From TrEMBL:
Protein name: Smr protein/MutS2
One Pfam family linked to the record: Smr
InterPro entries for this protein: Smr_dom, Smr_dom_sf
Residue ranges occupied by any Smr domain in the UniProt entry: 85-166
SUPFAM superfamilies listed in its UniProt record: SMR domain-like
Native species: Gallionella capsiferriformans (strain ES-2) (Gallionella ferruginea capsiferriformans (strain ES-2))
Amino acid sequence: MSATVEDAILFRSVVGAVTPLAEHNRATQAKPAVHTRVRSTHSATEILDTLSDYQAQPSAETYLANGLSRMVLRKLRRNSIDDSLDLHGSPIEEARVLLQHFIFSAIQQGFRHVRIIHGKGINSPGGEAVLRALTRNWLTQHPQVLAYCLAPPNLGGDGAVIILLKSN
């Protein structure tokens, strides 16, 4: 729709001699507050209750959530670590609680790449790496874990995993 000469004359007759307000008389609008939203609807305790010790199959050296490319694992090995948790030597129930609280805290802080040291089982009875298998099992069940892989040798090798967490 185009403005005609008659429209312009009509507009000027209605508006008349309007002048803009002086700068000191203008209202200022406050910027809207920025609200950060945590997408996790589960508390640390609720998730802790769902982490089972039962293993349907032996724990794998890597885990990748459905729909993610194997390139994610390759990149995960090369990324820097935001935080780390050392579980080796911890009793099983304590390790489960520590792992859950560590992941919850990491997500709250916006960390995406974390390391969990579970140990190699060298000092365990029978030399069996109980925490290694349980840690990997718990991670595959955790809703905030997208992927994990063995840590490079300088970061713990097969005694640790590097984890990719969902972003906030």
